[in-house]
Amino acid sequence: MATNVSARAKQWPLSFLLLVLFLVFVGCNRTDSNHPATPTVITFIGWGPATQRELSMDQSVFEQFSRETGIRVDFIPGPESMTERLELYQRYLGKKSSTPDVYYVDVVWPAVLADEMVDLNQYLAKESGEQLETEVRNNTVNGRLTSMPFNTELGVLYYRADLLRKYGYRNPPATWDELEKMAARIQAGERAGGNKDFWGYVWEGAAYEGLTCNALEWQVANGGGNLIEADGSISVNNPRTIGAMERARRWIGTISPPSVIAFKEQDARNVLHAGKAAFERDWLWRQFSQESMIPNPDATIAIALLPGGSARRASTIGGQSLAVSKYSHHPQEAAALVRFLTSHDEQLTLWKKHAMLPARREFYAGSKYLQDRPEIAQLWKDLASVTIVRPSTVSGQHYDEVSRAYFSSVHSILAGEQEAGKAMAELQAKLEKITGGKPGPPPGGGAIR
């Protein structure tokens, strides 16, 4: 009996030690319900805060994502100017910053930012097959899906339908010649009626990416080629491009305000909304119910294709995509946010609430969704014949330099700092140096000068 008690006494310290170690292990690995684990936080940079559309893109969409996944999203607004936005992005990426995790990128940036972004094929290969094929192809660089399409845009003409009727016009202008005549007549009539600071046509003339879009539309419509052609040749210095730039220069101070050379999208939009313009060039995504900002209750704003030149109509394709930084510490969670934002339900909300054009194929496959947006349905069937793309693919990583050189040269013409012929000749030489391309004629003729 004594022997058994003595044995148990010798074993007790070891048993006690094992029990203590077990309790410590369990305590260290138990989640205290009063202190939940810290959620993963990812940072999104992109829309807002300046433009009307992006102001409406409130953070409720991120809150919904957090409720569904437990992943929190911090938001950093981006500048209105896409040129300034790209500069900001490149500063983050140049420092290999782990944040932002998700970038809201312009349609012309995939090749520019390709080396800094995750290949989303590893996370979203199935989902990419549900997007517009042209958009996915645009975002694929060397087989890598550098970003997921989020929305698409197109340059169009907004106009005061009530003023066209007032001055006896049944249809919006089909050519730039017609727009000039209609804008001048309406402008003169409205000023004579007391609206002294009324203008015929407003557009984006500041030295930034928006001017590249406007100028390329003028150039292509006039038969001047596509700045850099598909084979890499440089065709910008030709009489038709020069003529298109000279035409735009004549607008300033006649049918467009002198200050238009500082306008971005919101500036031009504000003039139209204030009842101070007959025509405005903008992107096809705006919500018509918001046009009540115009003081005149009888005012009616309608939409049409941009006018054509001697060669054709031309409307620049725009849009944005979502990319995940390769420096992110949470690429899988970041890809989950991209999946959420490009899902059917979220894209449907954007379509109905924010008037944005989704990048998902089903929205354009039939009348189910287009019937909710009749102004878009009417234009959609004509888009294939008018759309043009900026030379981002052929320029690759040089696109930002190409665009800057282009809009800077065009702006110098608009501002009266350079004669159009000289500006285009200098631009031709700059683009050849930037890209290594050779001079060549634009499609359909038009000799290089």
Key traits:
single chain; 449 residues; alpha/beta; D-Maltodextrin-Binding Protein, domain 2; 2 domains; ten-stranded mixed β-sheet; two-stranded antiparallel ribbon; 19 helices; globular
State the end-to-end CA separation: 116 Å
Helical content class: 40-55%
Question: How much strand content do the residues show?
Answer: 5-15%
Domains (count): 2
Number of helices: 19
| Fourth CATH level, the homologous superfamily of the largest domain | Periplasmic binding protein-like II
Poorly predicted residue ranges: 1-12, 14-33
Q: What is the CATH architecture term of the largest domain?
A: 3-Layer(aba) Sandwich
Helix and strand composition category: alpha/beta
The main sheet comes to:
10 strands, mixed
Shape annotation: globular
Please write the CATH class name of the largest domain: Alpha Beta
CATH topology of the largest domain: D-Maltodextrin-Binding Protein, domain 2
Number of strands: 12
Question: What is the CA-atom radius of gyration, in angstroms?
Answer: 28 Å
Mean pLDDT over the residues: 87
Would you give an account of this structure?
By secondary structure, this protein is of the alpha/beta class. The protein has 2 domains: about 40-155 and about 320-375, 3-Layer(aba) Sandwich (D-Maltodextrin-Binding Protein, domain 2); about 155-315 and about 390-435, Periplasmic binding protein-like II (D-Maltodextrin-Binding Protein, domain 2, 3-Layer(aba) Sandwich), CATH 3.40.190. The chain has 19 helices and 12 strands. It has helices at about 1-30, 50-55, 60-70, 80-95, 110-115, 120-130, 135-140, 160-165, 175-190, 210-220, 240-250, 265-275, 330-340, 345-355, 365-370, 375-380, 390-395, 400-415, 420-435, and strands spanning about 40-45, 70-75, 100-105, 140, 145, 150-160, 200, 275-285, 300-305, 315-325, 355-360, 385-390. The strands form 2 sheets. Strands 1, 2, 3, 6, 7, 8, 9, 10, 11 and 12 form a 10-stranded mixed β-sheet that branches. The radius of gyration is 28 Å and the shape is globular.
